[in-house]
């Protein structure tokens, strides 16, 4: 699904990623953990195509196609989804209208007809139930005045609507209380299939109690310094990141 | 001949034509004298520092057009709010078109300024209201007063709700190679009454037009006036709009200004308070490009206690367009417990676009809440990335952001069909077709 080879990236003169290699197959969940400033959010932003970062070396392949030169929307059309750590507020555009636009633009790019209005409503109803989202919520302006938990639930709702091949969840657990965490994790688990892949980026092990990863990678100082199974997350939680820092 | 000389020499002929004996003779004579003394404003004056009329005044404008310009409704239907029934007061090259108009005297007066100025039955109203709130000092207002003859006359008596919106429409045909018109509107809204008015100036050709318009609005006790100005004219059209609002206690006057078109647009919008607990709302959306220029020059004069004013102006400027926001709030010593808020938010889409924003607060009372805020920025890159990440192409994402940016003002439009129309114009201005109706 996703194959990252020797990825170097910088912002301005500062090199943030210093040679990342990552293989993610369909059906897998990968967790990327690491201390603050390790480059976790940078990695997710770069996969999604944020133009503030410059890829100086290496390649990002999605289903064997190099996507590193594509615009963010083109990557989205190919099935890349990034759940933002800080979702953006857009006053005056309702959640429903935003989703209609996103879905139909994606369909248009993939040479599909617009989704008929009744079908759209049906899908919206289904997916909002999955995330336990109130109908009234959908007519509110996107993220405007949403609580931290509502914003994150809304991100996963959008993921459910767009059905991406590769979903990257950037610090989705931050700002969530335990109930919201459960709902979000439950939603993600239901969306998981053997056709898609998920990368969970997190600072803490907490979310990984709900979304069990197949692989855990530790990112430190722009490099993956350790990889392992789900047990690695527990080890990290016990020993703290100083353990990693000490070794590197 | 220079335009000023041409206007001065036309004045005598004009007065003879409209009736020298008229009660307005003295008003007109002192107005033309004021214009003669002051002339057209120049950039040397503080109030015109950012707006120059020089290039426009070089046109050889016809001041009195020929009378025989006719237009069929179908040619201009799109400029009207044709989805709903409205009263219409329509002028072609400054002359009333009975053919396109739909006036009334049934309970309310929606008719012509020229008949109000000449017919005896309106004499008392004209004596009481005409030129009573308009500036006698401002040279362009004086110029209009001197030639005041045609425009809309709207009088809603006590406790009446106008049963449908009123459209005031000024078309210019281009039959003259360059045309100057001076519309004069008078709007009187009685106690507890309510009216919605839409004013639009529309050029139908590429020939230069200069409109120097004056509108006086009187809102009596508890009256509600909802006034929309649609400025979406061609690139050869220039508009100087001088609007004066007089408010009595507990009235609410909204003026919404949508500036999308025209070569040069100057909005002089003045509010004067004559009673307590009243509210003035001034909203504006400006979306311009090329070499267009829009100047909002507002004044809210708080002279009474417990009144509120809200100003919210949004501007989006691309290419080499220039915008000005000069908002003055004056709070007199008696005007305690005033709430006055002013906002001007602007987005520059090009390195060559300019906005000059200048809030002015002069406060002489000590127990007031006043605030102002001007922002100038670019589109939020993070928000753009967010939308692109969801599959929305950059161009559409930009449009959506700009729509979101102006949304607070759009939300204030109380006529649904007009709201739809304005959002359509905005989508067109932004060059996008979105997946849903804005």
Automatic annotation (TrEMBL), chain A:
Keywords: ATP-binding, Nucleotide-binding. The keyword Repeat does not apply. Gene3D superfamilies: P-loop containing nucleotide triphosphate hydrolases. SMART domains: AAA. It comes from the Bacteria. The keyword tRNA processing does not apply. InterPro entries: AAA+_ATPase, ABC_transporter-like_ATP-bd, FeS-cluster_ATPase_SufC, P-loop_NTPase. Residues 2-246 form the ABC transporter domain. One of its GO terms (molecular function) is ATP binding. Belongs to the ABC transporter superfamily. Ycf16 family. This is Fe-S cluster assembly ATPase SufC. The lineage of its organism: Bacteria, Pseudomonadati, Bacteroidota, Flavobacteriia, Flavobacteriales. The gene is sufC.
UniProtKB/TrEMBL annotation, chain B:
GO terms for biological process: iron-sulfur cluster assembly. SUPFAM superfamilies: Stabilizer of iron transporter SufD. It comes from Flavobacterium sufflavum. The lineage of its organism: Bacteria, Pseudomonadati, Bacteroidota, Flavobacteriia, Flavobacteriales. It comes from the Bacteria. Residues 175-405 form the SUF system FeS cluster assembly SufBD core domain. Belongs to the iron-sulfur cluster assembly SufBD family. InterPro entries: Fe-S_cluster_assembly_SufBD, SUF_FeS_clus_asmbl_SufBD_core, SUF_FeS_clus_asmbl_SufBD_sf, SUF_FeS_clus_asmbl_SufD, SufBD_N. This is Fe-S cluster assembly protein SufD.
């Amino acid at each position: 699904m996703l194959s990252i080879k020797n990825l170097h990236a910088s912002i301005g003169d500062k090199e943030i990623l210093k040679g990342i290699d990552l293989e993610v197959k369909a059906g897998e969940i990968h967790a990327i953990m690491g201390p603050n400033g390790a480059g976790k959010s940078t990695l997710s932003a770069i996969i999604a195509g944020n133009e503030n970062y410059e890829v100086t070396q290496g390649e990002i392949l999605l289903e064997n196609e190099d996507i590193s030169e594509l615009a963010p929307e083109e990557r989205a059309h190919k099935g890349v989804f990034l759940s933002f750590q800080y979702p953006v507020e857009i006053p005056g555009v309702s959640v429903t209208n935003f989703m209609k636009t996103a879905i139909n633009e994606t369909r248009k790019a993939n040479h599909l007809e617009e989704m008929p209005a009744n079908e759209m409503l049906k899908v919206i109803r289904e997916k909002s139930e999955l995330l336990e989202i109130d109908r009234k919520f959908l007519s509110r302006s996107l993220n405007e005045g949403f609580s931290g938990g509502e914003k994150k639930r809304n991100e996963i709702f959008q993921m459910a609507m767009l059905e991406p091949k590769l979903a990257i969840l950037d610090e989705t657990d931050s700002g969530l209380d335990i109930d919201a965490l459960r709902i979000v994790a439950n939603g993600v688990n239901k969306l998981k299939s053997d056709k898609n892949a998920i990368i969970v980026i997190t600072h803490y092990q907490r979310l990984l109690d709900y979304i069990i990863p197949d692989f855990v990678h530790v990112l430190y100082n722009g490099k993956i310094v350790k990889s392992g199974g789900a047990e690695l997350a527990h080890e990290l939680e016990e020993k703290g990141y100083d353990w990693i820092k000490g070794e590197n | 001949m220079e335009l000023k000389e041409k206007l001065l020499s036309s004045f005598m002929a004009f007065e003879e034509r409209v009736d020298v004996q008229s009660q307005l003779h003295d008003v007109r004579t002192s107005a033309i004298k004021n214009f003669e003394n002051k002339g057209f404003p120049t950039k040397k004056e503080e109030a015109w520092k950012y707006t120059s009329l020089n290039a426009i005044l070089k046109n050889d404008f016809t001041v009195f057009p020929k009378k025989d310009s006719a237009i069929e409704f179908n040619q201009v239907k799109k400029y009207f709010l044709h989805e709903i029934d409205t009263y219409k007061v329509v002028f072609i090259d400054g002359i009333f078109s009975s053919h396109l108009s739909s006036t009334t005297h049934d309970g309310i007066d929606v008719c012509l300024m020229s008949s109000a100025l000449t017919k005896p039955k309106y004499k008392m109203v004209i004596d009481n209201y005409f030129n009573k709130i308009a500036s006698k000092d401002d040279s362009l207002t004086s110029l209009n007063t001197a030639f005041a003859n045609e425009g809309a006359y709207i009088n809603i008596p006590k406790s009446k709700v106008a049963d449908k919106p009123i459209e005031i429409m000024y078309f210019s045909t281009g039959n003259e190679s360059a045309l100057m018109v001076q519309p004069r509107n008078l709007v009187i809204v009685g106690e507890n009454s309510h009216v919605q008015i839409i004013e639009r100036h529309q050029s139908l050709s590429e020939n230069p037009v200069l409109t120097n318009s004056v509108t006086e609005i009187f809102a009596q006790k508890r009256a509600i006036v909802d006034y929309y100005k649609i400025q979406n004219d061609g690139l050869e059209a220039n508009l100087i709009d001088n609007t004066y609002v007089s408010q009595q206690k507990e009235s609410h006057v909204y003026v919404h200004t949508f500036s999308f078109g025209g070569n040069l647009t100057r909005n002089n919008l003045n509010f004067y308070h004559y009673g307590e607990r009243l509210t003035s709302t001034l909203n504006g959306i400006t979306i311009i490009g090329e070499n267009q220029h829009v100047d909002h020059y507002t004044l809210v004069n708080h002279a009474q206690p417990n009144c509120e004013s809200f100003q919210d102006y949004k501007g989006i400027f691309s290419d080499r367009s220039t915008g000005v926001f000069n908002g003055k709030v004056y709070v007199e010593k008696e005007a305690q417990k005033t709430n006055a808020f002013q906002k001007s938010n602007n987005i520059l889409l090009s390195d060559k676009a300019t906005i000059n924003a200048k809030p002015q607060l002069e406060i002489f009372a000590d127990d007031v809440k006043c605030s102002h805020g001007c922002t100038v920025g670019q589109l939020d890159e993070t928000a753009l990335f967010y939308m692109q990440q969801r599959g929305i192409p950059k161009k559409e994402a930009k449009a959506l952001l700009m729509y979101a940016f102006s949304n607070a003002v759009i939300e204030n439009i109380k006529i649904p069909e007009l709201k739809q129309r304005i959002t359509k114009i905005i989508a067109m201005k932004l060059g996008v077709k979105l997946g849903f109706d804005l």
